[in-house]
Automatic annotation (TrEMBL):
The lineage of its organism: Bacteria, Bacillati, Actinomycetota, Actinomycetes, Kitasatosporales. It comes from Streptomyces monashensis. It catalyses: adenylyl-molybdopterin + molybdate = Mo-molybdopterin + AMP + H(+). This is Molybdopterin molybdenumtransferase. Catalyzes the insertion of molybdate into adenylated molybdopterin with the concomitant release of AMP. CDD domains: MoeA.
Amino acid sequence: MTAPGTRTGAPAQDSDDLDLEEALALVRQPRDDNAGQTPAPEPDTNGEGNRVTPWHQARETAARAARTRPRRAPVSVPLGDALGLVLAAPLDALTDLPSFDTSAMDGWAVAGPGPWLVRDEAVLAGHGLPEPLTDGEAARIATGARIPADTTAVLRGEHGHTDTQGRLHATRDLAHGQDIRPRGQECRRGDQLLPIGTLVTPAVLGLAAAAGYDTVTAVPRPRAEVLVLGDELLTEGLPHDGLIRDALGPLLPPWLHALGAEVVAVRRIGDDAEALLRAVTSSDADLIVTTGGTAAGPRDHVHPTLERIGAELLVDGVTVRPGHPMLLARTKDDQHLVGLPGNPLAAVSGLLTLAEPLLRTLAAHPAPERYALPLTEAVQGHPHDTRLVPVVLRGDCAVPLHYNGPAMLRGVAAADALAVVPSGGAPQGAQTELLDLPWASAGIGVCFT
Ligand SMILES: Nc1nc2c(c(=O)[nH]1)N[C@H]1C(S)=C(S)[C@@H](COP(=O)(O)OP(=O)(O)OC[C@H]3O[C@@H](n4cnc5c(N)ncnc54)[C@H](O)[C@@H]3O)O[C@H]1N2
Ligand code: MOO
């Protein structure tokens, strides 16, 4: 990645403590009313007195957590379902490619020097072996058709003409072997075309099919289960009477899929501690993702549930805004739970901070290249936490978006990436690390099917 951004000296007010309008204006008009004051000391505990994890470290912990368990056995997957998986076995050619000598052009297969007598029957692609040519003979041939035995070259249609006696003449010099693709030109049967660990892209699917595969051997998608908590959530219609629409039920499954997971279930648990306990203990998913209930309110059941089942808390709070109450726990030897905060942008922050590295390891995806771009505007920082701020990419710059409050999706819905703004903020022009969003990256994540 390019050099990280310079930090501004001006500590900023925590965006969570600002009122709505101030929060909206944060990026537009960086505040400097704290300039010159001593920054608040770095807090290292959450509300429970436990250590919180720095943002970069939280991502590394999540990536490493999944390495402690054996990877699930490779699976054989039909080509139509393999997009976005990673090869668990090398792709060795099952055939020579091309598998027979083939014409590279529409024209005539010719034998020996011209002029040639043209045979009546044409040679078409997809047909059986044509009759051999005799010296001085030509046959009309299509691109991709099998070359008749004893053919010395293919003359392109635009480079030949027939005279009044029906003899074919070349209008250009014709080299021996010209426009014949010999069998095995691209590979021989058994050649390794792609190594283990290759991401299955559309091009890989095409190559696998060409090389004779109906299925590929791949790392299976890790199975994820989503548990949506909260009694206040509606699944349809307009918000009313203090109830709001569930934004995370629709957001998470396709996003998790883009991160490499197979979402096996989405369950709505409400604020029912016993239902949450049952759902967690009965799940055989590799990853359970909960939404809401991470804080310490009377209805926040995630921590007590993890305590009841003796789960190991690997990350309990992260120095990132939004999303700092996010958590990662090991619930069984081969199962993790990511607790996403209920505020929707905070949940996105948790998804990218904890679920993405964990799933990346489980799915054997390569880590994305870290990169940075300059910001078109200064971005206000948190005094001691990293901020994740939605941006759009324009040319070689990142343009911060304004609707970036923890409860807002308006910014991220228009964004290409999240800017990783260090504590203290980033001035205009600062090179700032970016996390691409799956629909905007050039990677396979763009495929949501
Ligand atoms: N006393 C404190 N209160 C809070 C703190 C704190 O440090 N001390 N942290 C705040 C922060 S920051 C966040 S983030 C939230 C985290 O809360 P929870 O994870 O416990 O989430 P809930 O309380 O269940 O919900 C928070 C908020 O989000 C709405 N929500 C929940 N689920 C959804 C959903 N699926 N779709 C749309 N919106 C959802 C919910 O209605 C609440 O408005 O805690 C703060 N409080
Ligand atoms: O800052 Mo919370 O973590 O609202 O998202």
